[in-house]
Amino acid sequence: MRISEAGLPRRAGRRFLLALLGLVMAGAGPTAALDAAVRTPVPAATGYRNAREAMRTGMRDYNAGDKEGAARALEYAAGQGHALALWKLGRMYAEGDGVPHDDLKAFEFFSKIADENADEGPEAPNAGVVASAFTALGRYFLDGIKGSYVRSNVERAYDMFNYAATYYGDPNAQYNLARLYLDGTGVTQDPRQAARWFNLAAEKGHPAAQALLGQLLINGQGVTVQRARGLAWLTLARDAADGPKDQWIVTLQEQAMAAANERDRAEAQSQVDGFYRRSAKGR
């Protein structure tokens, strides 16, 4: 099952993108600001010549373990509109990484990226950051943020995921979009569409997408039964599994391996080897 990515034209119209961003802005109340700088003022005395220098300092401090210093430097760069600094701060606040956990601040930083990069195309240097921001916004819209103006809105979540998945080809967005179709969340349940989006993300090495695509192929859910191919995807997913959070992937693969016959196991291993050879050539 090989599928080309389809959706928006290579250059999405600015009118479309601004309309999509309007969905983000609509999440706020009449007086709520999406600009994270409003809630996170930049210190007056910075000592940085420009945003790039502050960004470099911030990442150097972060890697050295000085996350408080990193946050100060990144806030300066973010205040100058540096997309990567905004993204890094968003991740730090979302994960409580060196700063207090604050989903609303994270949401605002990601929103600022989306708002200020309306003209960024999929080949632009910041494309990965912008796509990641849209995907993060989609996840926040799925559940909302308790005690804030960000309410759960599955339609907006779908729009965020769909935009990042189709225009930027972002594998995390493709995975999240597939989950909406698989679970019937905000859309008509459609395992075939789920398999399509899982496949696109799986080809890019997304472990969770590989695992769920493998399950669909083994069970013939939305696709023709292909047990060996399904087992191959599950094996690739297990190889990339990352600690306790991915234990479910390990469990699925072990169950599928135990239920497979020798022929399917051998064919699956051959496909896994072929995937790694192709990946090595592409480097």
UniProtKB/TrEMBL annotation:
Q: What keywords appear on the UniProt entry?
A: Signal
Q: What is a biological process (GO) this protein takes part in? A: ERAD pathway
Could you name the domain of life of the organism this protein comes from? Bacteria
Signal sequence span per UniProt? 1-33
Entry's Pfam families? Sel1
List the InterPro entries hit by this protein, alphabetically. Sel1-like, Sel1_AlgK, TPR-like_helical_dom_sf
Q: Where is this region: Disordered?
A: 261-283
Indicate the transmembrane segments per the record. Answer: none
State the protein's name. Answer: Exopolysaccharide biosynthesis protein
Q: From what organism does this protein derive?
A: Methylobacterium aquaticum
Q: Taxonomic classification, please?
A: Bacteria, Pseudomonadati, Pseudomonadota, Alphaproteobacteria, Hyphomicrobiales
